[in-house]
Amino acid sequence: MSGAGIEIDNITVRYGDAVTVKALTLDVKxxxxxxxxxxxxxxxxxxxxxxxxxxxxxxxxIRIGGTSVRNVPANKRNxxxxxxxxxxxxxxxxxxxxxxxxxxxxVSSDEIKQRARAAAEQLGLQKFLDRYPQQLSGGQQQRxxxxxxxxxxxxxxxxxxxxxxxxxxLRANMQFELKELQRSVGITTVFVTHDQEEALSLSDRIAxxxxxxxxxxxxxxxxxxxxxTRFVAEFVxxxxxxxxxxxxxxxxxxxxxEGLGISVPLQRERAAGEVEVLLRPEQISxxxxxxxxxxxxxxxxxxxxxVGAAIRYQVAAPSGQILRIDVLGAQSVHPxxxxxxxISWRTQDMRIxxxxxLEE
Amino acid sequence: MSATDKNRDPLAKVAVVISFVVLLFATxxxxxTAITAFNATSETVFPPNGWSLRWFENILRQPDLMRxxxxxxxxxxxxxxxxxxxxxxxxxxxxxxxxxxxxLIDAFLLxxxxxxxxxxxxxxxxxxxxxxxxxxxxNLLTLHVVLTFPYALRxxxxxxxxMNPKLEEAAVGLGxxxxxxxxxxxxxxxxxxxxxxxxxxxxxxxxxxxxxxFLTVSGATLPVQIYFSIxxxxxxxxxxxxxxxxxxxxxxxxxxxxxxGVEKII
Lengths: 360, 266
Fold this sequence. Notes:
In chain A, the strands form 4 sheets. Chain A has a 6-stranded mixed sheet, with helices on both faces. Chain A has a 6-stranded antiparallel sheet with strand order 13-12-11-14-20-21. Chain A has a 5-stranded antiparallel sheet with strand order 15-19-16-17-18, with no helix packed on it. With 360 residues, chain A is of the alpha+beta class. In chain A, helix 5 links the parallel strand 7 and strand 8. In chain A, helix 2 packs across helix 3 and helix 3 packs across helix 4. Helices cover 23% and strands 36% of the residues of chain A. By secondary structure, chain B is mostly helical. In chain B, 79% of the residues lie in helices and 0% in strands. The two termini of chain B are 32 Å apart. Classes of the chains: A alpha+beta (360), B mainly alpha (266). Chains A and B meet through strand 6 and helix 2 of A and helix 7 and helix 8 of B.
């Protein structure tokens, strides 16, 4: 089974006077796993609900598999949806819950039984068919919700923060399972989350949203390394943003980092003016390995936090700015708080933002 | 931990004893009434001077009491049915949609609970005299719907409020029409509350004396008829019918406990 693509074409959603989604356009390719990532209230759930048919759009169109669903009611859209609280029917056992969509489609009771059991087996629920939702753990409930959504062979799968209620360990397992399941079924999936780590690890592409608009749609690594705006840079991953100024002298552009007295020659000519420089914590390292053709200076160590695989440092630059540095635990240089250490980074790792936007 | 356990134990025992004493005081009059129904002679005395079942038989020979019992039963059943239908619709409207004046309507619908029954009965009497309605059953039915409706609304509404509104949406997402999602998802979960609502409405209607007395000149409902009967004669027939009502209520509570659990009713 290969999923249908979703084309969200310039949609606007209003709640009373408030506009929650503003002229939003997004294409989800068939079979793709796309995440809508953004802070709460950014309109990501509303966008998902308008694809499902639960939020009326006041402008634009939504096409699933090339066919407009604008005038198709929610119960005719053939969509599988999983909610944050799973919304399992408390008065039905697992088998009845999973079979509900098939029952609504007029499938014969023999076939419902057989397909519901097959779906339960696929998600490791065969032992729980007679249980009621309140007798299941959070992870099991989520599997039931997934089975219930997938058993009807929907055109698209919509997931509204389905991991939010799970504890961390279980969440990691379920993320892995969800990704495997989605890959094997090959269904087009839209996943709403405010958890950037979750979005980065699961998605083929991520759409970052803020205030009813999409700021950037890209593959996770592109999004992380080339965030289009300052907002995306800060929302996805940890961002060190340094104030800087571009100065042009005799046809060459130089980047002057504010308060550091460091001037870095740039590869190509750029317009003069105030900018900001983005560096990810793992792009900065101790020692002056990157001194040649890079930036290097002495900074004071403020503190360090052990986070398992890495040690996360906070250091103060001579300018007073605080930088965050991630050093893999296996690396040898581990200065202590209060010490002064040389830090450095490579010129090509710096991303330049002018007026909050990435400058190519 | 162990210290609080030691402190709590004797307190718990005292609480149990007090509960039993209160229960005894509350039920003692009922027990006495029930026992006097078995008196051999025609006085209502305790302890009885001999045993007999003839006062139960005598109920059947009292056409006024029999008519009143049937009248009250019909009144209670019909007013409960109307109140529960209306209560269900109002509860859905009040919990599932937002509209201007919703809280005001909500408060207004529950207001009969706050109005003293004497005032309610008197105003209905004045109203029916003004409009010239001389149908005792219809007049009482109107009054009893007003009396029982707030109970139906409250019980059904609280069960709807506890229900996850996403469930109906999930059913629609799975292909159910609005009507199907109501009858397959919402209604089955409302069922215990409907049972509770029937219980409350029936008891409130069947038992009502104060407000009903204003609208019944000849003692049409059972409580009012019983009141008239003890004014004229004091033989144990009234005790016998009271004993039957006590038995009926007890059976009702036991069945209700088995079906939905008594803690949901109270």
